[in-house]
Amino acid sequence: MQEKLNGLAVKAQTDLASLTTRPEFEAAKARLVGPHGELTALMKQMGAVPKEERPAVGKLINETKQRIQELLDAGLARIEAREMQAQLGPAVDPTLPTPDFGPGTYHPLTLVREEMCRILRKVGFTVADGPEVESEYYCFDALNTPADHPARDAQDTFYFPDNARFGNVSKKIDGEKYLLRTHTSSVQIRTMLQGKPPIRIVSPGRVYRRDTTDATHSANFNQIECLYVDKNVTVRDLKALLDYIFTSLLGPDTKTRFRPHYFSYTEPSFEVDLSARHLPKVKKDWIEIGGCGMVDPAVFAEVGYDPEVWTGYAFGMGLERLAMLLYGIDDIRYFYQNDLRFLKQFA
Ligand code: DAH
Q1: What are the two backbone dihedrals, phi and then psi, of residue 223, each rounded to the nearest 5 degrees?
Q2: Does residue 95 sit within a domain?
Q3: Ligand 1 centroid to 278 CA: how many Å?
Q4: Percent of the chain at pLDDT above 70?
Q5: Measuring CA to CA, how many Å separate 189 from each of 1, 52, 61, 203, 313?
Q6: Three-state secondary-structure class, residue 46
Q7: Residue 346 burial by Cβ neighbours in a 10 Å radius (0-12, 13-18, 19+)
Q8: What is the spatial distance between Cα 137 and Cα 24, in angstroms, rounded to a whole number?
Q9: How far is the centre of ligand 1, averaged over its atoms, from the C-alpha of 261 (Å)?
C-alpha cells in the first residue's frame, strides 16, 4: 500500500509536468483524484490494511493527497501562464528605441497652457490645481449659483449617480450630487477655503459639459482660471492684467474689450472680447474669449473673507479657443485626434 501511494505521487509528478492545455489538465486531475481516480481507488483499499498499520497508511494517504494537490495547483498555474502569454503575443522590449517617431513634441494645448502660466507667474501668480470630480457645493453653491440656474440642469452637466462616493471632495451638501466640474471656477473656492488673502492663482484644467461636438464645441475642453484677492482691487486692475496677458501671448497689436454680462460669482461681470486681426485666419474684428468680473461679496462671505475688507477679480477662458487663435486652427477636433501630421507641426 505504501509503495503504491509513493508510486502514485511520482506518477502524478511526471504526468502533470508534460501538460499544456486545460482539457489535458482536467483529464489528468480526474485520473488522479477524481471519484473514479487512482487515489480514491487506493483509499478504498484501506479496509484491507492491517489495523496496526492503519495510522501510518492514513497519514501517508493525506500526505500523498496534499502532494498531488500541490502538483495540480502548479500545473494549472503553468497552463494559465501559457494562456496569458498566448493572449499577449510575443514579448516586447520596451527599452528598444522607436525609429519611426523620433523625439516627442508638446501638444499645442500644453504649449499654450504653459505659456499662459509663464506669463502669469511673471506678475506673481502661482499655479493651483483642483479635482475634476466636484460636489455641487464647489462648482455652484459656493459660487453663489442658485439651484435653479441653467448650468445646474442635468441636460448641461455630467452628474454621478446618487450612490457615488469620492473621498477627495470634502464639502458636499446633503442631497446634492457629485459631478464632473463644468468650469475651473471651483478652484477659486478651494483656494480661498485653504488659505488667507492676499491670493493670486492661475488654475488650468479640464472641464466637462453636455454638448455635441462640432468644429467649435467639445463636451470636454480646457479652461484657465485666474483669481486675485487683495485690498483695493478694481476693474482697472483686471483690464490691465488681461491686456498684459493677451499682448504677451498674441502680440502687441492685440486689443481687449469688456461687454457687460452676468455671472453669479462676480459683480460687475463682463465678457471679454479680443481683437487680433493681425493673426492668421482671424477674420472677425472681435472674438469672445472668456468671462470675468469683480468677486461677488457673497462669495467672499461664503469662504469667510470679510467683504468689507477684501476685493478681487476673477476670470476664466477656454484654452482651446486661445490655441486656435494663436496657431490658426479652425477645428477644435484636431486637438483630440492625436494625428501625428497635426501634432508634429508644433515641434
Ligand atoms: N466660469 C465661467 C465659464 O465657465 C467663466 C468665468 C466667468 C470665470 C467669470 C470667472 C469669472 O472666474 O469671474 O463660462
Answers
A1: -125, 165
A2: no
A3: 27
A4: 100
A5: 79, 82, 70, 12, 13
A6: helix
A7: middle
A8: 60
A9: 11
Confidence of residue 91 (pLDDT cuts 50, 70, 90): confident
Which pLDDT tens digit goes with each residue over 333-342?
999 999 989 9
Give the model's pLDDT for residue 101. Answer: 66
Under DSSP, the state recorded for 165 is -
- Domain limits for position 141: 108-346
* pTM for the full predicted model: 0.72
Atom of ligand 1 nearest to the CA of 266: 13
Q: C-alpha distances in angstroms, 130 versus 78, 113, 145, 177, 203?
A: 46, 16, 19, 18, 8
Please, are residues 232 and 340 in contact by the beta-carbon 8 Å criterion?
A: no
Q: Are residues 185 and 326 in the same domain?
A: yes
Whether 260 is in a domain gets the answer: yes
Q: Which atom of ligand 1 is nearest to the CA of 313?
A: 13
> Is 203:127 a contact under the CB 8 Å cutoff?
yes
Identify whether 93 is part of a domain. no
Residues in Cβ contact with 64 at an 8 Å cutoff, skipping those fewer than 6 apart:
5, 6, 8, 9, 39
CA of 88 to the centre of ligand 1 (A): 47
Q: In a 3-state reduction of DSSP, which class is residue 251?
A: coil
